[in-house]
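Please, why this fold?
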Amino acid sequence: MSAASAIPFASVAILGPGLIGGSLAMAVHKHMPGVEIRLWARREDPLTYARENGLADICSQELPEVVSGAELVILCTPTGTFLDLAKKFEQWLGKGAVVTDVGSTKGDAHAGAGSFLKEKGHIFIGSHPMAGSEKQGIEHARAELFKNAVVAMTNESDADERSLARISRFWQELGATVFRTTAVHHDSLVAGISHVPHILAALTARTALADQTLSIDDLRVMASTGFRDTTRVCSGSPELWANILSQNATAICPYLEQSIADQQHVLQLLREGKHEELQQWLAEAKKTRETVC
């Protein structure tokens, strides 16, 4: 950064230092030297790790100590906890403080914490960095997690343009590109490119055991990069992903219904031995993949 005046926030409070929260602490420390970093967690273990590795200026299980005076508060806990957490820390938010989140669904974030904070006169802006890993926990955090990532920003809570610009600059300083959208559009997009693929990855893993006459040891020997790459994401936390999928069910279900119909179509092609139609189906999938990626 060219000058201290370019720093969008002088102090950042990160609530929930897991993989994303821990990576945020590392990234802010690396890319915004001089910014005060504060971490809050319900458990002591991640805070101990943060202290031992010099990731923050303040590490505490006490919300007042972390939130009071912070210019930016980032919710990195599961989306379903946002509202209850906001109700607990709202009283310590300073005038002009901005609250954002890293949740993968934006409708719930705005309907819950966003609406509550707006009613109390505070600023809430939705954020969703398209970055992460199937691994969880602060011990897997890394400073460059957000480099070249896209961060979706949503403003259903009517934040002012100055606050939006500050959040944009914050993510850009961490190496990310900001994509402004609405909560409904965001949730539909991630249903198709993240949430349904997670379900299909889980289905692929479960299908590997469909023929119970096959030996687990033989399957393990034969499973190669294709199977590992296809199923990697379903190694993520079942508890976390059950919450994400449930929260975005309205957007996910139409995609999943279309996927089921498409699978039925492929099944019919295979049963009827329609090789050319099968090849065309695969060609369309290949074209879509190359267009999107």
User: Anything to note?
Assistant: The chain has a mean pLDDT of 94.
